[in-house]
Amino acid sequence: MRFGGSDAARHAGDLVELPVVSDKYWMAGTSGALVGGAPVRLAARAAILDTGTTLVTCSGADARAINSEAARRAICCADWCGC
């Protein structure tokens, strides 16, 4: 989502446009995530894109895959994932 352009000093990499899959939410299809730059394959599903929150919810299997990669790369917050 861009309003009035973007500031390259505030992000790394290119911005991409995604088609929305719902007319009620900013929702796009997804099948993976990057953890410390490493790809993590997740179940294909729709994701709500909300730039104003730090809340992330997902299935237990997806959470374990993300946390496993974070622990492998020593990227962790023990308050949430217990690694």
UniProtKB/TrEMBL annotation:
Residues 1-83 form the Peptidase A1 domain. Transmembrane segments: none annotated. InterPro entries: PEPTIDASE_A1 (IPR033121), Peptidase_aspartic_dom_sf (IPR021109). SUPFAM superfamilies: Acid proteases. It comes from Elliptochloris bilobata. Gene3D superfamilies: Acid Proteases (2.40.70.10). This is Peptidase A1 domain-containing protein.
